[in-house]
Amino acid sequence: MVGPLKTLSPAEPARPAHVLLVEDDLEISRMLQGVLSESGFTVSGVTDAAGMDGVLARDKVDLVVLDIMLPGEDGLSICRRLRTASAIPIIMVTARGDAVDRIVGLEIGADDYLPKPFDSRELVARIRALLRRAQGGTGGGRTRPLRFAGWRIDPASRQLHDPDGLQVAMTSVEFDLLAALCRHPGQVLSRDQLIELTHSGLASPIQRSIDVHVSRIRQKIEPDPDNPRYIKTVRLGGYMFTEPVEQA
């Protein structure tokens, strides 16, 4: 006997991405929260590290927009602390004119940055691009794992495993850069090409931020980061992945 038909519930709508804004300027914070909410994001706004820690402890956060100049613990220290425990995407914003501060932010694990003042529409575009990368939205559907020298890159799970099978933590930008290089072994890729392959054409404020991310990748995969074996710098050209790569 056939039982009663089950009523199918409608598909649950996708959860809006949750953006945590850490900004102590209340006027800027209110403006950005309004823009991000209108753009379809769930937004939490806090003014310092303690407020950020509280939100992260109780809610699922998909991306952090982090100001450098904050009361108490500054943005650079917060970024360093976040990155030791999580691969959550981080966009740093700074009013400082010195590019060194921005480079330091990238070196300690920020995925992207914007100097103040900036167009709020650009921030929205960068958030969306970074969320797409974090969710595996780049790569044109190429999800087959890649192998080189015992290392395994899995685009589907967005994980990197070393020759011993241990997972190596990477930011979204680092993962996409390494995957792009591995998909073009023996080919010189310029910084413009790497930006196109990993940022969907959305260039960072200074193109040389690619260099910082490549340096971080080398620290994680190279036997001797000071004398790289896998990722070679090509003078006036860009970068080339020299190790043979196989699809798993």
Question: How would you characterize the overall build of this protein?
Answer:
This protein is of the alpha/beta class and 248 residues long. The protein has 2 domains: 18-134, 3-Layer(aba) Sandwich (Rossmann fold); 146-247, Orthogonal Bundle (Arc Repressor Mutant, subunit A). It is 37% helix and 19% strand. The strands form 3 sheets. It has a 5-stranded parallel beta sheet, with helices on both faces. It has a 5-stranded antiparallel beta sheet with strand order 9-8-7-6-13, with helices on one face. It has a 3-stranded antiparallel beta sheet with strand order 10-12-11. β1 (18-22), α1 (26-38) and β2 form a beta-alpha-beta unit. α6 (172-182) packs across α7 (191-199). The longest helix is centred in the middle third of the chain and has 15 residues, at 120-134. It is globular. The chain starts with 17 loop residues before the first strand and ends with a strand. The model is unreliable at 1-12, 137-141 and 201-206 (pLDDT under 50).
